Structure prediction request, 126 residues.
Amino acid sequence: MPLNKSLRDEEKERINAILKKLVELLYVLNFGKAEIDEELKSLGLTTEVLLNSSGTELIEHLGKLNFDWENTEKFADYLVLLSDKMVSEKQNLIEKALLIYNYIQSESKTFSFDIFGKIGVAKGKL
Prediction:
């Protein structure tokens, strides 16, 4: 069921706060999987689900959570940042981020030079 504007704005702010907290955790010196999982839980995810889901499954999950294009892009940005911390899963996370960026470019019907640049940066990390 579509959300009305007020609920959509509240949901966007809630998602923004969660994504901001997830990014902040990556800059804490001794961040741990438990702290990340605690935040991911509010999105119905865990690091295990994040790593074991396909990119398409993640995109579908984000859609169910009413992620708009901006928050979907922020989630892909988070995956790229997380890949720097989880070196053993770097390729897995980067590939998912790339799939999400490309999904945004094609489905939003708007070309973004910013996302195009992020795709280039992410490919360079592979």
